[in-house]
Amino acid sequence: MSGRWSRWIHRWASPPYFYRVSRPWGRAFAVVSFVAIAIGLYGGLWLAPPDFQQGNGFRIIYMHVPSAWMSLFIFVFLAVCGLIGLIWRIKLAHAMASAAAPIGAAFTAITLVTGSLWAKPMWGTFWVWDARLTSELILFFLYLGVIALSRSFENPQTGDRAAAILAIVGAVDVPIIHYSVDWWQTLHQGSIFRGNPFDGHLHTTVAPSMLWPLLVMWLGFMCYFGALVLWRARSEILLRQLDTDWAREAVGAP
Amino acid sequence: MTWSTFWSMGGFALYVWPAFGFGFLVMVGNLVAAVRLEKRARREVREARETHDLES
C-alpha cells in the first residue's frame, strides 16, 4: 500500500475526523439523490414508452431493478467492511457495516415485494421458487442474520466480528444471485447488462429511451445509500465512543 | 402519455402504484430510523457524561 493511500485511509478511519468530514459529504449525496430520483421517476413513469409486451406494467422495474442492484452492492460493501475490520482492525469499518446492513435489508425487501407485484400480472402468481427469487430471499435472511448477530453480544466487538464473518461467508450468495439466470432454467428474465465492462463488451437489449431513467434511478439510490450510510455511521461511532472527549464535544455535552 | 393513462397505468395501476408506494415508504422509514438512531446516540453520550460526573 503506498504511503499516500495509507495516510488517506488512516485519516478517514479516525472517528473524530470521519464524524466531522462525513456531514458535508452526506448532504451532497442527499441533494444528488433527491434530484436524480425525481428525474428518474419523471423519465420512468412518464417519458419512457410502454413495453410492447408488458404495457405500462413494466414500469415497476424503475423501483425493482435499482433496488436489486443495491441489495447486491450493499452486501459486497458489508463483506469488504468486514474484511477491513477483521484484518486491519479499523473500528470505522465495523461501524460502516453496522450502518449499512439495515439499508441493504430494506432494499432487498423492496426488491422482493416489487418483484412479486410485477410477477402477479406477468406470470400469474406472486411467487415461484425460482433460482433468482429464492437466492434473493436467502440474501434477505443473510441481512437479517448480520443485523441480529451484530446486536446479539454484550461485547459489541464480538458482535461486530461475528457479523463480519457472516457477511464475508454470505457474500457467496451475490454471484449466485447474479448468475442464477444463466446457471439454471429460470422464469426470471436474464440480466439487463451482459458481457464484461472491463474489456468494453458490456451490452444491453434495453432501448435507450427505457434505459436512461433506470440508470438515473440507480444513481439516485446509490447517493441515497451514500447519504444514509454516512448519517447512520456517524451515530454508530458515537455509540461506540461514548466516553471520549471528542464525542462529548460533538454532541455539545459539557 | 395522458394523465388518465398515467394514473391507470394502462390497467396495471393495482400493481405499479403499490410497488412505488412500498418502495418509497421503506426508504422514508430508513430516514426516520436514522433520525432516531442519531437522537439515541446523542442521548447516550450525554448520559455517559452525567454518569461520569456523578462518579467523579
Give a summary of the structure in a few sentences.
The complex is a heterodimer of chains A (254) and B (56). Chain A has 254 residues and is mainly α.
Count, helices of chain B: 2
Q: Please mark out the parts of chain B with pLDDT under 50 across 5 or more consecutive residues, or reply none.
A: none
Run of helices and strands of chain B: HH
- State the shape of chain B: rod-shaped
Q: Give me the strand/helix succession of chain A.
A: HHHHHHHEEHH
Euclidean distance between termini CA atoms of chain A: 41 Å
| Biggest sheet descriptor of chain B | none
- Helix run count of chain A: 9
Instruction: Give me the Rg of chain A, rounded.
Output: 20 Å
Number of domains of chain A: 1
Tell me the strand percentage band of chain A: under 5%
Which overall shape of chain A is indicated by the principal axes computed on the Cα atoms?
Answer: globular
Low-confidence stretches of chain A: none
Mean pLDDT of chain A: 91
How helical, in percent, are the residues of chain B? over 70%
